[in-house]
Amino acid sequence: MEAQRLHTVDDLMAWPGDEPVELIDGAIVQRPMTRFEHGLVQTGLLGQAFPLVRGQGPGGWWIVPEISVRYSDSHCPSHDLAGWRKERLPQRPAGVMSVLPDWVCEILSPGHERKDTLTHFLRLQRAGVPFYWIIDPKEPALIAHALDAGRYRTVFTAEGPDETSLTVRVPPFEEIALDLGLLFGDSQ
């Protein structure tokens, strides 16, 4: 039996067609179709983090949606949101990122839950990404993990409609108060 060849970042960059794809453990996989709820969470989080992006908060951040990050030659996922502290990456980056993010956020999409809750979780933990958030817009739920001695530990959870009325401070963004209602599109 012949071993299957792992795809590389070069294969990903040369991939034909217009459909959004990413490289997960050597396999080129199609990204899920973005739903309104997904975009609403991205917009809600980006909007509230804007003071950090503008550098008005302590240190400042580069926070971008749908960003490809190269962790190895055979693993280059596109994260829903990822951020880099400007103190660590002072110049504006360009292209596919090869610098490890300080924070990654994945928003669950139907049919791709395993990738976000298991594959990315384990890969980012192994790579040493300091913070990993998982957001489920349907529940609604937010689970924030922080790296502690090489393993993720849960540092914040909010689940269900009763908690969408909360304003919270979640690592690594303790400088800003996040309105969970606005994050999940419940605030008018």
UniProtKB/TrEMBL annotation:
Residues 10-171 form the Putative restriction endonuclease domain. It comes from Thiohalocapsa halophila. InterPro entries: Nuclease_put_TT1808, Restrct_endonuc-II-like, Uma2. Pfam families: Uma2. The lineage of its organism: Bacteria, Pseudomonadati, Pseudomonadota, Gammaproteobacteria, Chromatiales. It comes from the Bacteria. This is Putative restriction endonuclease domain-containing protein.
